[in-house]
Amino acid sequence: MLTLTAITRVGCMAHARRKFDEALKNEQKTALYAMTLMQRLYRLEHWMKVYGITAEGKTALRQRKAAPMLTPLFEWLESEVQRHTPTSAIYQALQYSLRLREELSRYTQDGVLHSDNNLVENKIRPVVIGRKNYLFMGSHEPRQRTAMLYSFFVSCTAHGIDPEEWLEDALSRINDLKTSELNNLLPHRWSKACPQQH
To answer: DSSP secondary structure string, 116-162?
Structure first.
């Protein structure tokens, strides 16, 4: 399994698929074939969700089933991209997936990871809807702090934590912790009683 203490860059299969969807009207056969291959990967994810497969189980199933599906997908993308002109929508779709091959495959290494970031996009939609308001925040620093707080609060929600309770507790403890212990205050590891257990 991957160690998630550092940032792990994971590609979004939904974005890759969307590129092919956009190319449908110009190159239907190629776009549909790519989308069909990707849909097989999504069927596996759906099945694991329906049956409540654990993260460990997802890792094993992805290694056994998804990873072998990705190999021929990328081999096909490599051969197919040579058939199209660089200005075409289908070429852009093929290149997008090829450029992110490693990132798009990374979710198969750890069941905690997701094949796309749809969950995150749904959570940050209120931010996107109101982003015009954030143009008037002044300098870069307050914008960066706001983005960090949004990330923390969405992480709290994703882990079933009351963001207000987490923030109050984290702020009350932060000065008493060593730098090496600060990770224990991150929402995915935090517990009011005993943060190091998460």
So the answer is: S-HHHHHHHHHHHHTGGGGGGS-SHHHHHHHHHHHHHHHHHHHTT--
Q: Are residues 76 and 149 in the same domain?
A: no
Instruction: Give the range among 38-52, 77-91, 123-137, 167-181 with minimum mean pLDDT.
Output: 123-137
- Examine the pLDDT at 68 and tell me if it is beyond 80: yes
Q: For the chain, how far is it from start to end, CA to CA, in angstroms?
A: 17
As a whole number of angstroms, the distance between CA 155 and CA 149 comes to 10
Distance CA 183, CA 179 (A): 8
Number of neighbouring beta carbons within 10 Å of residue 11: 21
Is there a single domain that holds both residue 110 and residue 144?
no
Burial of 119 per CB tally in 10 Å (0-12, 13-18, 19+): exposed
Token pair for residue 123?
């959570």
Is it the case that residue 193 has pLDDT exceeding 70? no
For the segment 28-56, what is each residue's pLDDT rounded down to a tens digit? 999 999 999 999 999 999 999 999 999 99
Range of the domain at 128: 119-197
pLDDT tens digits, residue range 10-32? 999 999 999 999 999 999 999 99
pTM: 0.64
Residue 99 makes CB contacts below 8 A (sequence gap 6+) with none
Residues shown for the chain: 198
